[in-house]
Amino acid sequence: MDLNGRIQPGSVKVGTKQTTKMVEQGKATMVYVAQDADSRLVSRIVQLCRQHNVEVTFVDTMRSLGKACGIDVGTAAAAVVEE
Fold first, then answer.
1. Which end of the chain is more exposed for a tag (fewer CB within 10 A), N or C?
2. Per-residue pLDDT tens for 37-82?
3. In the record, which residues are listed under signal peptide (predicted)?
4. Domains of the chain (ranges plus CATH)?
5. Do strands 77-81 and 28-34 pair parallel, antiparallel, or not at all (unpaired)?
């Protein structure tokens, strides 16, 4: 995220499926997870991040994570990827 609380466009994949895919492929450099997300959705992502040594940062809400990613809806997870 930059100083305005936004993740740089084009460098992020949004959603649990895309985040999982990026971690599994070794493309994720950092993962953001919303603390209010369903633990069944994000627990696998957190576990994968530990296995692949990817840093996980927790944010307060799905809504704030979605806003930081530049979308109008909330998201449970987002991955910053190598360009």
1. C
2. 999 989 999 999 999 999 999 999 999 999 999 899 999 999 999 7
3. none
4. 16-81 (3.30.1330.30)
5. antiparallel
Distance CA 6, CA 79 (A): 13
Q: How confident is the model at residue 9 (pLDDT cuts 50, 70, 90)?
A: low
Looking up tokens 């990817």 gives: 54
Beta bridge partners of 32: 57, 78
The residue behind tokens 């990613």 is 69
Mean residue pLDDT of the chain comes to: 89
Place of tokens 């998201």: 75
Q: What is the pTM of this model?
A: 0.87
